[in-house]
Amino acid sequence: MLTLLRLIRIVFISLRYRLDELVLSSIKHPIAYCLLRIVRFGRPPRVARGVRLRLALESLGPIFVKFGQVLSTRRDLIPLDVAAELALLQDRVPPFPSDQAAACIQAALGATPQQLFRHFEVDPVASASIAQVHLAVMHDGREVAVKVLRPGMLNIIEKDLALMRALAGVVERLAPDSRRLKPREVVAEFNNYLHDELDLVREAANCSQLRRNFGPDTGRANLLMVPEVVWEYTTTTVFTMERMHGIPVSQTDRLRASGINVKDLARTGVEIFFTQVFADGFFHADMHPGNIYVSDAPETLGRYIALDFGIVGSLSEHDKNYLAQNFLAFFRRDYRRVAQLHIESGWVPADTREEELEGAVRAVCEPYFDRPLAEISLGQVLLRLFQTSRRFNVEIQPQLVLLQKTLLNVEGMGRELDPGLDLWQTAKPFLEKWMHERMGLAGLRQRLDKEAAQWAQMLPQLPRLVHTALSRPDSLPSMNAEISRLRKAQEQTNRLLMVFAATVAVAVGVAIWALAGQ
């Protein structure tokens, strides 16, 4: 009964915001066109489709808001105007009551917030679709931020996800572009994201890993600050971390007033991104301005601060290698190499014609290179490349979509800080250095050091393994005899089949002759 009521509410809100018109307008069929004329009552809606979709998702509640946030990252699937509007869904969810947050903390940690902390702020400082954050001070004086999962989220999402799967099935059957849009796969991807974000221990582990990647012993501590996890106050529903003080990266006037060089800050942001991607293969994939601050403390002035680690991306060594070579080929306008890399990496089918793919890549990139370098968007180039590659049956990998989305965020923040930021020239030396270290003697030495422990265990066993292999009876004659026997059996079977076929043919011929004689 509750599911039916929820479905009725979804239908009501869809009609209220004219989402039926949005669906019908994407179906190129005479019947859909007639229905579209009926639902429009002869005139199109006054509000843009992206705005209507965003408002509908906000009305449907936190799960649909989160779905809109995730969908906004799939710019390879949805129109850009819709994706830009859905990106506005960040931090637009009303907070849940503070007494519920206190009850969640007590259930998770076994004591009330007043017992656990010297001071606990009842009103949340931030509220999102999955959780909200309260500031607190621990008994030892440490300032912390306590992230609390919205109560009852698991039951809510399971019901809403079931409805989303059903709606995706309907869209898949009706929409002519469903093969490309893959609504069921999008819902499945959202399901994975959502369940990952519902486990705050996983988010805490992401935070801890990123903090370790920029720790004092890495030589990168001057680039990025990541809060320390308070593990004893962290569970699947409560995440307690060090409180970070700073200025939102989007508030450029405050940054300048604090004495921070915003042009240097823009270039540092690009360095941080490429360091995460190519040096670590592990990157913060939700780098919108609400999650990135800049320290204004004298001892760490101008250092980036990362927050919210629910969505991270991971790249294999294979992905990193091909991405770096792709970027360098772009910088050098070597479109044939870009095409070759796509085929070698398996991103396009092996039978793809290299010259045809090269021409498509050239058509995407050349219009951008005719502009001043400071006006070229590397994220937009990747986006256009993803869109062009549909005709070559490219299956876009989720980690690459996350990478492209994050690159757009980094580019947007960098250009807001410094409109003249040349991302290409900032990134090119970094990539060339990374490729040199990877392909040169330094890279060989690093890989040998990495494999040394495993080889140290295997080398003492090699003489015994070689002796065992050499002393083993030669099985080649028996294998040849078995192959010969199988070949003879196959030939005998073929002869029997030929005799049977001939017998059937004669029988059919006789039957036809007898019928003709009658």
From TrEMBL:
One of its GO terms (biological process) is ubiquinone biosynthetic process. GO terms for molecular function: ATP binding; protein kinase activity. The chain crosses the membrane at residues 496-516. Pathway: Cofactor biosynthesis; ubiquinone biosynthesis [regulation]. It comes from the Bacteria. Pfam families: ABC1. Signal peptide: none annotated. Keywords: ATP-binding, Cell inner membrane, Cell membrane, Kinase, Membrane, Nucleotide-binding, Transferase, Transmembrane, Transmembrane helix, Ubiquinone biosynthesis. Residues 119-497 form the Protein kinase domain. Belongs to the protein kinase superfamily. ADCK protein kinase family. PANTHER family: CHAPERONE-ACTIVITY OF BC1 COMPLEX CABC1 -RELATED (PTHR10566), PROTEIN ACTIVITY OF BC1 COMPLEX KINASE 7, CHLOROPLASTIC (PTHR10566:SF113). This is 2-octaprenylphenol hydroxylase. It comes from Eoetvoesiella caeni.
